[in-house]
Amino acid sequence: MNWKLTLAYDGTDFHGWQVQPHHITVQGKLAGAIERVTGERVLPQGSGRTDAGVHARAQVASFVLNAPIPPENLHRALNRTLPAAIRILSAEHAAPEFHARHSVQAKSYEYRIFRGEICPPWITRYVHALNWPLDIKRMQQAAELVIGDHDFTSFAASDPDLSTRASDPLDEDAKSGNIRTVFSSSFSSENDQLIYRIRGDGFLHHMVRNLVGTFLDVGRGHIKPEEILEILDQRSRSAAGATAPARGLWLDSVEY
To answer: What integer pLDDT is reported at residue 158 of this predicted model?
Structure first.
């Protein structure tokens, strides 16, 4: 039986989603919990690879089990077994052809920036605390310019090992090349937080964090909003801004 799990996690203490030698990861913890509950060793496939320190409200994972376990029982048993930083929100049977990564139609990410003078300790793990003066209107203008089909090479990580793995986000998806479609891209304010939201058909490794870092340069007056298009055209990581810290990034939802 093919399974679909929706899970949330605090990524602070994990070395990202993907299993890695000598590191604690979300995928590794989930695989271990499934084995303890069912006796079957599987490697759950996620909708994307979230980086170390990145959080998720609704990550999706899929895997196949032989055990005839009712969904509500698996749901309950996994939450009893997993660490408190990982919670299964739902467990359900899926169609045989469903795959958490390959079946994705769209993903939404959220990046949170705390704008107050003193960041409360109970949210410091989940926001980028930054009280620099920022021109939010200019940042919004810049954010709108990435909507549509673009080659996002300038906003992709320049990791030396990217040639040996799929390009992502959280983030990584199964597409080839660096062209992605962004459906929406905008900033909004909620109390003391500035929130960037982006929805697209897929994301390159570090793409959202590199976009945020560049939009912050716009907000500080270092570059003009329209220069975003020039940065896209250059297709060079060195043309864009710094990578924003992982702790402010959330995988918000995945659509199938």
So the answer is: 79
